[in-house]
Amino acid sequence: MQILYAIAMAVVIGVIVRFSLPERRSTGIVLVPALAAAVAAVVAALLAWIGWDWSNLAIWLISLGAALVAALALALLAPVLRRRSDAAFFERARRAA
């Protein structure tokens, strides 16, 4: 049950990251929060699986910290990759026309 709390907090972190950083128009509205939730779920499940107790603060900090890092990385890298991809696509389209 506690993993649902970690996932919900990670979604909130993802939403905050998405709306805090510039160039948010180049990614979908759900992409960053979904990645944050997935990362938090996997990390929390792995830590619980190896025997960490949910009352331990470290499991929360590590899983939510990993979600924050993943959300920031995606929110910062996606616009750069999107611009490159769009430029290459338009260049190919211009040559074909």
Give your account of this protein's structure.
It is a single chain. The chain is 80% helix and 0% strand. It is mainly α. Helix 1 (2-20) runs antiparallel to helix 2 (31-49).
Largest sheet: none
Report the portion of residues in β strands.
under 5%
Q: What is the alpha-carbon Rg in Å?
A: 17 Å
- What is the average of the pLDDT values? 93
Task: Give the oligomeric state.
Answer: single chain
Short précis:
This protein has 97 residues and is an all-alpha fold. It has helices at 2-20, 31-49, 57-96.
Itemize the secondary structure elements and their pairings.
Blueprint: H1 2-20, H2 31-49, H3 57-96
Helix pairs in contact: 1-2, 1-3, 2-3
Key phrases:
80% helix, mainly alpha, single chain, 3 helices, 97 residues, elongated
